[in-house]
Amino acid sequence: MNKILISFLVSVACISNLSANTFLDNLIINSDSVEIKKNNSQIVFLNDVRIETELLSIKADIALYDNIKKIMSLKGSPSLIRSTSDVQNFKGNADEIVFYSNSKIHLLGNASMDYDNIKISSSSIIFNPQNGMVSSDE
Questions:
Q1: What is the pLDDT at residue 23?
Q2: What is the pLDDT of residue 46?
Q3: What does the pLDDT read at residue 108?
Q4: What is the pLDDT of residue 18?
Q5: Using CA atoms, how far apart are residues 2 and 24, in angstroms rounded to an integer?
Q6: How far is CA 14 from each of CA 46, 102, 106, 121, rounded to the nearest angstrom?
Q7: Can the peptide bond before residue 129 be classed as cis, meaning omega within 30 degrees of 0?
Q8: Which residues of the chain have pLDDT under 70?
Q9: Which domains does the chain have, with CATH numbers?
């Protein structure tokens, strides 16, 4: 019960700070453990991290929310992301997935993505799920 309550409270904190990114609305984060690093303004989710929103499903080994930089970084071998939306159909994986408050998602390290039946592979893929723009540069 404590694990669920902590995940819920931490999720609420992350939602309020990443609210500009509508793909992270109604964020639910589950993990085996949670560490709150007050001195660094960071929240770390460890082991079997699963993130669900109205539009995304994500799996990773570790997730780090940085309240100062306003980013969420997920690492795994690999980390997986997929759309649950009927409008935007995509899925991808990478060593690291980073969400920015400007709605951009970066897939970093051994990145690959399927977007509207197009397969993309690169060391870095930058994707905006709101407008569908894909690039390998900022």
A1: 58
A2: 95
A3: 96
A4: 47
A5: 23
A6: 16, 14, 18, 29
A7: no
A8: 1-25, 136-138
A9: 2-135 (2.60.450.10)
- Output phi, psi for 9, to 5 deg: -65, -40
In the prediction, which pLDDT does 118 show? 86
SS3 annotation, the chain: CHHHHHHHHHHHHHHHHCCCCHHHCCCEEECCEEEEEHHHCEEEEEEEEEEECCCEEEEEEEEEEECCCCEEEEEEEEEEEEECCCCCCEEEEEEEEEEECCCCEEEEEEEEEEECCEEEEEEEEEEECCCCEEECCC
The structure tokens listed for 32 are 């085996």
pLDDT of the residue at 60: 97
The per-residue pLDDT for 45 is 95
Among candidate residues 88, 86, 82, the one with its CA nearest the CA of residue 131: 88
